[in-house]
Design brief:
2 copies of one chain form a homodimer. With about 230 residues, chain A is an alpha+beta fold. Helices cover about 45% and strands about 25% of the residues of chain A. In chain A, the strands form 3 sheets. Chain A has a 4-stranded antiparallel beta sheet with strand order 1-8-3-6. Chain A has a 4-stranded antiparallel beta sheet with strand order 2-7-4-5. In chain A, strands 9-11-10 form a 3-stranded antiparallel beta sheet, covered by helices on one side. In chain A, a hairpin with a 2-residue loop joins β4 and β5. In chain A, α5 (about 110-120) crosses α6 and α7 (about 150-165) packs across α10. The longest helix of chain A is centred in the middle third of the chain and has 27 residues, at about 120-145. The radius of gyration of chain A is 19 Å and the shape is elongated. Chain A starts with 6 loop residues before the first helix and ends with a helix. Chains A and B meet through β4, β5, α4, α6 and α11 of A and β4, β5, α4, α6 and α11 of B. The first copy, chain A, binds a DNA duplex (30 and 30 nucleotides) through α9.
DNA sequence: ACCTGTGCTTGACTTTTATCAATCAGTCGA
DNA sequence: TCGACTGATTGATAAAAGTCAAGCACAGGT
């Protein structure tokens, strides 16, 4: 893998404690590729031939069924996706597409499984990563089942704000229709939901969100670490 | 752990390949307890002091938020729950209660983490288990986001039928209101949904489901292995 | 056999969410 | 500068799901 600056990758929790030899082994069969926006990298149901690592850009994980489609998550650098399918040697459960121009490292799944069997530290790192992924999905599942769309949006706004160190104004980092899909609603409804947050001091201008009344928003949203705190 | 017949447990994929010594170590600090029905074993947000293993009975994993409550999964013997919280040493994300009289093994989380660090085979077994759990939640998430409640019910019926080796009639194995909660709807709506399946040859008498027109039901439900096949 | 409680069902109604159609706003390229 | 396109918004309407209240059915205890 001569053309990849793999220092970032080596630093990932997943690989950091891996033996040098195993890491070199793993990277030997890997390759890097640049993809334009809106390219479908993998399709659910396909066999999991590669573990993917996003070096730059961003990836939409989504799923289709009977003509419907929903976004499940966004992957940002530097992290991996479809680890579970790779480990279980099972088909991908989600499809993935680039949202923007993205640089992806492709690691053959067979090599990952071999490294997993050979290197205890790697196996342990995978556990931590998977446990994290698992807990994240459980949280979104709770979000979806326990809250109305307005509540989901309110809490989403608060989570974003936290990511921006509490700024009272910030820009959404993706299209509204994708946000709608992630939150489990239609674009039309997202528009209306934003209006529904006006009484709680949230205003929207294009892609820019402004929180004018933090207290009021929090009182409405009732954020809960067991759903909203992605670090826990 | 003198009072537990642990042969079942030793057979679990999670422990099968573990070194004898590590296993003995792990079980030394564990204990078994019998619980009556409807006992809340753990509450979300609490620190994860024990890994739980269901020896007999059944467990409801659920979550509460602002007075609302939803069931997320049912755990049946012999298997573990809350593995992810234990491994990450993070608070439980779900609450758990006994549905019936249940026999539970409690393994101190610290011991599990120690065994995990010491025994590579155990670490690998945990990976497989977690990957499985993760994929299961992703599937229910897709079910919830991509389907209407009628479609979810139809596919649920088909999944149950599969579990009973394709029998055309079988009994639901839990209360309808809990089924409603699992499927993300109200009990009233579940009643109506069952009626909605009548045109597709599904009839319900109390707890007994009869499938009279398999083809018609499948045509409506459009089951998909990437959502409904729990073995994949 | 008869209460009594619990869970299930039903009907009427409300709220929430989706759909369809039209319009608007901003971007990009000719 | 002007279309042409794409995504966002709005309004009207419909469908889906939830709520509330009443009635029913069955099981368990007396």
């Amino acid at each position: 893998m001569p053309d990849v600056d793999d220092t970032d990758i080596r630093q990932l929790d997943l690989f950091a404690d891996m033996a040098d030899e195993t890491y070199a082994d793993l990277m030997r069969g890997s390759y890097v590729q640049n993809f334009p926006p809106q390219i479908e990298l993998i399709t659910e149901g396909d066999p999991s031939d590669f573990l993917h690592i996003v070096e730059s850009g961003s990836i939409d994980l989504f799923s289709r069924w009977e003509g419907r489609e929903t976004s499940l998550a966004t992957v940002r650098p530097v992290s991996t996706f479809i680890l579970a399918a790779t480990i279980r040697d099972a088909p991908y459960l989600m499809s993935a597409r680039t949202l923007e121009k993205s640089r992806i490292v492709l690691v053959p799944s067979q090599d990952v499984r071999r490294a997993f069997a050979a290197d205890g530290n790697f196996a342990r790192a995978i556990v931590t990563e998977l446990a994290q992924c698992y807990r994240t999905v459980v949280k979104s599942h709770k979000d979806l089942k326990l809250r109305t769309s307005l509540e989901r949006l309110a809490n989403y706004v608060l989570r974003q704000q936290k990511r921006r160190d509490g700024a009272t104004a910030f820009n959404l980092d993706f299209e509204k229709r994708r946000l709608a899909s992630v939150l489990g609603m239609t674009p039309e409804n997202l528009s209306r939901a934003f209006k529904g947050l006006l009484p709680y001091g949230v205003s929207v201008d294009g892609t820019r969100i402004t929180i004018k009344d933090q207290t009021s928003l929090e009182q409405f949203a009732k954020p809960n670490p067991m759903i909203d705190d992605f670090s826990v």
